[in-house]
Design a protein that fits this description.
Length: 818
């Protein structure tokens, strides 16, 4: 132990004596560790974050698998059936999706829009969540409310006596019985902490237009459960599958049930389905950067050890064993790596705050302040442990090779002051080649993504996105039954058409860039994926799309769901090349029709649009959609849509004062279209930043290798200068030493870039995922030329300093040892 402590003290003293080396090595390693820790924190905070409840591993989410997604909404009767019939579950809970309710602070006069979830009485007991103040809801509560810690602090003044006070919720007095702990972010889907939790029994009175408890057609409830002792998720799945036939059919199809582990973000479904693929790419990128940084550290440590040949030789001559010398050197690299890990953890904590603030700002800007995210990126013990493990592994890996070289060095040669630098130089060159190769791969990928982000700013979506205002309206709580809801929608559309600054009003089941439905067929030659939308007769006029031939739907066709359809130009080219498909039926191509028994006729062809993803053209199929509660209104404005939003809200309030509280009014450009651009911007910024860091680290590595080259060839350079070598010859000698590994690295990097592009190609070729290169493909010769130019500049810049040092070599100093 004393010997180990002595080695540690010596390592600290040795590193303090070389502040330049220590600072450079620490920062180089800290950068790689910080990026890895930040990326792992993001992955952990989203993909692995459990629910903030006791024993979260026992909580499962009940879903109904169908098509490509998991249905998460059930009628309340399904919750009751599962609660009564599942023996593998210790308890079952039901919770609604977030609902926007109007709350009045008892001390204030202004109304507060608050996000609320209706929950079953079993919610808090089954989840075992204990209130920070007061209590949670119980099965006997019918008129009570529990508030979140954030709502308590921001709107209730953090009043410790708030349990027992009353809030006016939708005009109804409700006593506050408790305040939840700050750590409880709810049960996810979406992963946003609600402001209020309200008993399910209060739903019909707070939202009088519908009865979610007794109407089996109202599928408003998410279901979670806690496993019984000694039960597994597989056992719960089997039991739920057996219960499914007892439930009511879903859209005439037999009901299905499945259990899966519950997490806050539920990255295995919904909008987060591609999150894992994105994170794998990011993790590979940051591991590459860590490899480059570790390679630089190997070169720096090797160069430092080379300058200590005589010191190490003297230690060996005085009796120090090779093992003791190796342990000294490894201890130095471990101290360096742990110092780099500590700095990296601090930087990662700062980066986590930056990322979180940026994400929160983006969500607020694209949603008009309606969306928030329950995301915590602060490092916990797992993140700290991950950082420590990475630091130790990097320290051991970095210290191993230079330590072995120093331990094997010939004592007699070292004492004479000469070195066997050929092997060191060769292996250093190999390491530099590897660093440059992976840098080339990173830069190539970044160039493609940056080009895609640039094209996202200029691509034509095929319609007038700059004058489209989207109005989402939830009438379920205002009108009972589909007929009354359709009547209310008709009144709304008529009122909006009367606005002087509105040119057209239409509706669709999926607004541009705000949702999609794909249908993939495998006939006749290869799989084809269509974008399917239900639209109103005036839809194409409202978004400013060009009708190429034929006509659009009539009001009668939309109301009666006639067997007619409009197709895009791309579909027309695929199946009727050089012909006009208007008037044809889809009998020869039945996969174009909806999955019903009607015979569909093509009545029109519309110009190609990019309305699902901005990065690719839709192969669009458009069907008539009746007006109802599941549609989004699409308004085409004469001026800027953002200036018309207040007029729309005023028009809704004139029909019903509560309508604006159930409406989401958003310009297409400021919301969904901006999200599409962010889908390109974020990967491009990350990839560009990673590539720039990799390039800088590669340049630092090049500098270190060339410095070693100059140090190892001091005697040779001195002789050349003594014999009359010019400065051009000396610089050429130095540059030639770095050019060979650079050429090898470029060659290997080109092969790696081609291989990586094949992997990207398979990802971007998926029709139901965005093409982040915007049609450019994944292998762009211009990008590779630009990347090679950047690496050439890095080579020259990295060689300037060592070359100048070589020119200053004094022949007498170089030959003095001879």
């Amino acid at each position: 132990m004393e010997s180990l402590l002595a080695d540690i003290r010596y390592a600290f003293r040795s590193l303090i004596k070389s502040p330049g080396f220590t600072i450079t090595a620490t920062l180089t390693l800290a950068l790689g560790i910080a990026l890895n820790t930040t990326t792992f924190s993001i992955y952990d905070g989203i993909a692995l974050r459990p629910l903030a409840v006791p024993a979260p591993g026992d909580v499962v989410r009940v879903v109904a698998p169908r098509d490509r997604s998991d249905g998460e909404l059930f009628p309340y009767a399904s919750y009751q059936t599962i609660q009564e019939g599942a023996r593998s579950l210790a308890g079952v809970v039901a919770t609604s999706a977030p609902e926007l309710l109007i709350v009045r602070n008892p001390q204030g006069e202004s109304d507060i829009p608050a996000s609320a979830r209706f929950v079953s009485g079993s919610y808090f007991p089954v989840l075992r969540v204990v209130a920070a103040r007061g209590r949670g809801l119980t099965p006997t509560d019918e008129n009570a409310v529990v508030v979140s810690d954030a709502f308590w602090r921001s709107h209730l003044g953090a009043d410790p006596a708030i349990p027992g006070a009353f809030l006016m919720v939708q005009g109804r007095p409700m006593p506050v019985v408790g305040v939840m702990p700050a750590a409880f972010a709810g049960t996810g889907s979406p992963p946003a902490t609600p402001d209020l939790w309200i008993p399910a029994a209060a739903q019909p009175s707070l939202l009088p237009g519908a009865d979610w408890l007794h109407d089996r057609g109202q599928r408003q409830w998410q279901i979670l459960a806690r496993l019984a002792p000694h039960q597994t998720v597989d056992a719960a799945r089997a039991e739920l599958a057996a219960l499914a036939p007892t439930l009511a059919p879903v859209d005439t199809e037999a009901a299905t049930l499945r259990a899966k582990p519950a997490t806050l973000f539920q990255t295995d479904s919904g909008e987060f389905q591609t999150f894992g693929q994105v994170m794998v790419v990011l993790l590979i990128a940051v591991v590459i950067i860590l490899f480059i940084g570790a390679g630089n550290l190997v070169g720096l440590v090797a160069a430092r050890n080379a300058s200590r040949d005589r010191e190490l030789a003297v230690r060996a001559a005085l009796g120090a064993s090779r093992g003791r010398i190796g342990r000294l050197l490894v201890m130095e690299t471990l101290v360096l790596s742990l110092a780099g890990g500590t700095v990296g953890l601090l930087v990662a904590t700062w980066l986590g705050d930056v990322v979180l603030n940026w994400l929160s700002g983006v969500l607020r800007s694209v949603s008009g302040g309606a969306l928030s995210l329950a995301l915590d990126l602060s490092p916990d013990w797992r993140i700290v442990g991950f950082t420590v493990v990475v630091s130790v592994l990097v320290g051991l890996a970095v210290g191993a090779w230079p330590t072995l070289q120093a331990a094997r060095r010939d004592l007699h040669t070292a004492l004479k002051g000469t070195t066997g630098g050929g092997v060191v130089r060769t292996r250093g060159h190999r390491l530099l080649s590897a660093q440059l190769a992976v840098s080339l791969v990173l830069l190539s990928g970044a160039g493609l993504l940056i080009g895609g982000a640039r094209r996202a700013r200029h691509v034509d979506p095929g319609f007038d996105a700059g004058h489209v205002l989207l109005v989402g309206l939830d009438t379920r709580a205002l009108s009972a039954g589909p007929s009354a809801q359709a009547t209310l929608f008709t009144r709304v559309t008529e009122r909006l058409r009367q606005l002087s600054d509105v040119r057209a009003v239409a509706w669709t089941d999926r607004a541009p860039f705000a949702g999609h439905a794909f249908r993939t067929v495998g006939y006749p030659t290869a799989p084809v994926t269509f974008s399917v939308k239900g639209v109103s007769p005036d839809y194409f006029e409202a978004i400013g799309a060009r009708l190429v031939s034929g006509r659009t739907f009539t009001a009668v066709e939309a109301a009666s769901n006639r067997g007619v359809m409009v197709i895009s130009e791309s579909v027309a080219r695929r199946y009727w090349p050089g012909q006009d498909p208007v008037g044809r039926t889809v009998a020869d191509h039945p996969w174009l029709a909806r999955t019903d028994s009607q015979a569909y006729s093509i009545i029109g062809v519309v110009a190609d649009m990019r309305a699902t993803y901005l990065s690719r053209v839709d192969e669009g199929l458009y069907y008539p959609e009746p007006l109802g509660p599941r549609v989004t209104l699409v308004l085409r404005t004469r001026g800027a849509p953002s200036t018309e939003a207040h007029q729309v809200l005023a028009a809704l309030a004139a029909l019903d004062p509560t309508l604006p509280t159930k409406a989401t009014v958003m310009p297409l450009e400021a919301g969904p279209l901006r999200v599409q651009q962010l889908m390109s911007d974020v990967p491009a910024v990350l990839a560009g930043g990673f590539a720039l860091v990799g390039l800088v680290l590669a340049a630092v590595g090049l500098y270190g290798v060339v410095v070693q080259l100059v140090a190892r060839r001091t005697r040779e350079i001195g002789i050349r200068v003594a014999l009359g070598a010019s400065w051009r010859e000396v610089v050429t000698l130095v540059l030639r030493g770095s050019l060979r590994p650079a050429l090898w690295g470029a060659a290997v990097g080109l092969l790696g870039a081609v291989g990586a592009s094949a992997g990207f190609a398979s990802l971007f070729a998926m029709p139901d995922a965005p093409d982040l290169t915007y049609g450019r493909g994944t292998f762009d010769p211009l990008v590779l030329v630009a990347v090679l130019s950047a690496l050439t500049i890095a080579l020259v810049v990295g060689s300037i300093g060592p070359a100048r040092r070589a020119l200053k070599v004094d022949p007498m100093e170089a030959l003095r040892t001879e």
